[in-house]
Amino acid sequence: MTTMATAAPARTSQTWYKILYIQVLIAIMIGAIVGWLWPSVATNDWVKALGDGFIKLIKMVIAPIIFCTVASGIAHIQDAKKVGRVGVKALVYFEIVSSFALVLGLVMGNLVQIGRGLAVNPDAAAVANYVKQAEASKTVDFFLNIIPDTVVGALARGDILQVLLFAILFGFSLMALGERGERLRGMIDDFAHAVFGVIAIVMKAAPIGAFGAMAFAIGKFGPAALGNLIGLIVLFYATAAIFVAVVLGLISRIVGFSIFKFIIYIKDELLIVLGTSSSESALPQLMEKLERLGCSKPVVGLVVPTGYSFNLDGTNIYMTLATLFIAQALGVDLTFGQQLTILLVAMLTSKGASGVTGAGFITLAATLSVVNPALVPGMAIVFSIDKFMSEVRALTNITGNGIAAVFVSWWEGELDDATLHARLKQPTVSTGIDTRNSRR
């Protein structure tokens, strides 16, 4: 991939009350107060509908987003031919590190069962219907149902596994087309951007949805529910920190540098991500900084953009933790086989997550619907605090993709060690394009 990194435009100041992050924070606080002081109002069907309606708005775009991002991501891997073995090495790295993230989330969720005792009772009729469907389904039927009767039907129903299967096949077909498929790949990319534009519009309603979800949760389950939700936030933050310090730290040490020095080096990009809850917002700056850090330009051009679909460590941790939390809150005991299914399904659905706000919540919906549809109504519990989770998901994702580019460059023997250590010793550098790296 030959994308040229460019400097980000200067951010303009914005009135504080117009910032979505502030609006969501205020809505959550108001929702908690209303649920605590006026539980009869908070448990009104219309208040509950605010949170449920927002979730439905998000769910309606799951299938097209997963199809576009997975198909396009696989199709663009053809650029790996320009850099030899880099593509294969990057994918191997992505799968191994993503597996560590998923397993770590699963382990922490089982060790610290923060959802226990919440005693949530979702829509009984909906759950009974899901259970009935699950009991009627046999293992052989499960595998046969992965194959859609029609592609349009799979997209219309939002059957995630069927959409994933077609997206994977379609992506490999596009890859085989080579230059002939370039225009179609461009159309798919444009359509994906348009769909993400829909999400951007929907996210404007996030404060309303957050208010409804939080008010209903506190009004129905009492203030004690807030303790469980805060506990989930703390657990997720701690798990993400362990992953960055231990897993990414070990990878950094193998290459020969400190993960903490690297974090300081990309601190400006991390602040941008923190303010937008989107790791994509810092993509151009990250690529440019990695090149100046001594990484090979072709490696950066391939690994970083591909990593935004195939290497989302923060999203992986979030999905396993949130799935276990919801199961514990709903009193659903997941067997070892079902937890193994979480790993396998999350490994696939995370490939359909982009670095935009709300994408982690979308992939959670996809994972729950496949692992055990009875868990889907529990999404309303997690939604009220999803904004807090989104921040750390994005920060972990961009850090993981930065380390991936450095590691693959080192693996290929295309990392300038002298430049790497010099830059990390003096991390304060300009954000313009460094033409010195044009030789790479």
List keywords for this structure.
440 residues; mainly alpha; Proton glutamate symport protein; 22 helices; 0% strand; globular; disordered N terminus; disordered C terminus
* Radius of gyration computed on alpha carbons: 22 Å
Per CATH, the architecture is: Orthogonal Bundle
The class by helix and strand makeup works out as mainly alpha
When the domains are counted, the total is 1
Shape, principal axes of CA atoms: globular
Count of individual beta strands:
0
Euclidean distance between termini CA atoms? 13 Å
Helix content: over 70%
What summary fits the major beta sheet? none
Strand coverage percent: under 5%
Helix-strand sequence: HHHHHHHHHHHHHHHHHHHHHH
- Which regions have little confidence, pLDDT < 50, spanning 5+ residues? 1-12, 126-139, 429-440
DSSP summary: helix tally: 22
What's the average pLDDT?
75
Annotated CATH topology: Proton glutamate symport protein
- CATH structural class: Mainly Alpha
Task: Give an overview of the whole structure.
The protein is mainly α. The chain has one domain (16-439): Proton glutamate symport protein (Orthogonal Bundle). It is 72% helix and 0% strand. The protein is built from 22 helices and no strands. It has helices at residues 20-37, 39-42, 45-59, 62-75, 86-111, 124-136, 139-145, 151-157, 160-177, 182-202, 206-221, 224-255, 259-265, 267-276, 283-292, 297-310, 313-330, 336-349, 359-371, 379-383, 386-411, 417-425. The protein is globular. The two termini are 13 Å apart. Residues 1-12, 126-139 and 429-440 have low confidence and may be disordered.
